[in-house]
Amino acid sequence: MSKLDFTVAVTVEIPPASVDELQRRFKKVHYHPDGNIDASAIPEIQLWLTPNSGLPASIPSIKDLPALKHIQLVSAGAEKALATQQMQAYATSPGNATLSTASGLHVLSIPNYVIAQMINICSQIPRQIAVGRSTKRWHSAQEVDESGGEVYYNRMTKGKTVGFLGYGALGRETARLLQSFGMKLIAANTSGKATPQATYIIPGTGDADGSIPSRYYSTKNSKSLEEFLKQSDVLVCSLPRTDATAYFLDSQKLSLLPKGAVFINVGRGNLISSEELQKALDVPGALLGAAIDVTDPEPLPDNHFLWSHPKLLITPHLSGDTENELGIAADIFLANAERIAAGKDVYNKVHFARGY
């Protein structure tokens, strides 16, 4: 395989095997995980692989990079990079350089987390463990079940409906895996229609044409959204952080979910405030439980009232802490370089105006 005719900079630490692969595939690689790129190399850099915080602070302006074609982040989100002065200045008058995320990077871990937490809540496994530890004896279903309905340990998943609020890389891979559970799968997105998967796809994962959900609903249409929520026995949220998604959910919207529903959020914590989530969880006989890997605020402060809620499982935003995560990010970087060389648009392109 011939070398790609690009000079690249890598200012994030990636596995040695990935460094070797990039050096094999590119004309020249400046590998400086500490961010200290020699000033003499700056004018020739065409592609840049960076942390989620963006370019090193030593680069005052993107327009100081005359050969730059593309910046690749190693994160699935772009909000930290977009908040930098470099990006904000560039967004007001963008040139030809593009920006992309590593969306698709976490499809081998976060969908597994979603399914694990769904099973945890439906089978009330955390409560069984907690009661056993606290009482140090064999316990009954009555001591565990807090559904407000018929008392039993396990809720059936077969035949239930999973609603995906946001249907990007994470939602698509979760949907693919959940097909084997015999569950009905629906999705809500901006358009209310199936769309091709525009993100990088790890072979064998995802839903490239969006054909898995049996129906789509629009988040822009209140009646459509209401219909979607009323069907979602399990609501899986993986929306990005944007102005449109901030506090999109509240206790009133969660009250539309069927009795005994499960709420899971692996997108961004500000989808719903802590106060509104608590209200929804406190309604007797409503939510069976919730699992959140993201919080509002984040990190969740010590002794915050959500930490001890009996219906809530909280993890510290680590569901995407994937084995070989940065190796996968390097694979996405290489795939995008191949697309640029072929005159194609990059995977996971960030639109400056939208913020994602």
TrEMBL record:
Keyword Membrane listed: no
Domain D-isomer specific 2-hydroxyacid dehydrogenase NAD-binding: 131-319
Keywords from the named record: NAD, Oxidoreductase
TM region positions: none
Pfam families per the UniProt record, alphabetical: 2-Hacid_dh_C
GO molecular function, one term: NAD binding
Protein name from the UniProt record: D-isomer specific 2-hydroxyacid dehydrogenase NAD-binding domain-containing protein
